[in-house]
Amino acid sequence: GNSVTQMEGPVTLSEEAFLTINCTYTATGYPSLFWYVQYPGEGLQLLLKATKADDKGSNKGFEATYRKETTSFHLEKGSVQVSDSAVYFCALSATGAGSYQLTFGKGTKLSVIP
Amino acid sequence: DTAVSQTPKYLVTQMGNDKSIKCEQNLGHDTMYWYKQDSKKFLKIMFSYNNKELIINETVPNRFSPKSPDKAHLNLHINSLELGDSAVYFCASSQATGSSYEQYFGPGTRLTVT
């Protein structure tokens, strides 16, 4: 079946540090890949997405590249801010029957300190 | 112009009671979902409805019963509440566009069973 593996958290960084959150996946076919962000006390928001190999999704200074050869979709940001403190979820939607269903990773909590 | 809304935001109740959570989306999507998020932030899909028909029903106690009166609404009714039902419940919706099935989430309902 489909699965998503993210790096274990929590991750604590100082403001302006570089962020990488690793995400790898297992799926048949050509899934679409997503990063969602959940700020404290809120629901999940779509941060960025990529629908085919070598696509780069980007938003709010975050970016991730769909790497089919390594089945990865790592999230990066060059300079994090305190306001980026949140839980980040990697997810995929597979192709074919059941393609509407998202498979989520377990989430990575990021804390950015001033 | 809230896209996916849920009521109530907080729900505190005693064991054995019956409660309902309501969800509405104004995005014109044809698929809606219920997720349960535990204290470790792990997201578990519970149900999915497509055009008012149940298409996903994960291993969930039959005390949980979803009801979709129309495409824009998906309510969750829970009978005989137990302590283990305490969690945050998220509603989401999606619409197939090309190969991407991104989901839009509501703000969540924090259920506390005492």
Structural class of chain B: mainly beta
What multimeric state do the chains show? heterodimer
Q: Cα-atom Rg of chain B, whole angstroms? A: 14 Å
Q: How much helical structure, as a percent, in the residues of chain A?
A: under 10%
Indicate the low-confidence ranges of chain A by residue numbers.
Answer: none
Structural class of chain A: mainly beta
State the low-pLDDT regions of chain B, or none: none
Biggest interface, residues from each chain: A-B, 25 and 26 residues
Q: How many helices of chain A does DSSP assign?
A: 0
Indicate the mean pLDDT of chain B. 90
First and last CA, distance of chain B: 34 Å
Q: Strand percentage of chain B, roughly? A: over 45%
Assign an overall shape of chain A.
globular
Largest sheet of chain A: 6 strands, mixed
In total, the number of strands of chain A is 12
Give a description of the structure.
- The complex is a heterodimer of chains A (114) and B (114).
- With 114 residues, chain A is mainly beta.
- Chain A has strands at 3-6, 11-14, 19-21, 23-26, 32-38, 44-50, 56-59, 62-65, 75-77, 86-93, 102-104, 108-113.
- Chain A starts with a strand and ends with a strand.
- Chain B has 114 residues and is mainly β.
- Chain B has no helices and eleven strands.
- In chain B, strands 2, 4, 5, 6, 9, 10 and 11 form a seven-stranded mixed beta sheet that branches. A four-stranded antiparallel beta sheet of chain B has the order 1-3-8-7, with no helix packed on it.
- In chain B, β9 (87-94) and β10 (103-105) form a beta hairpin.
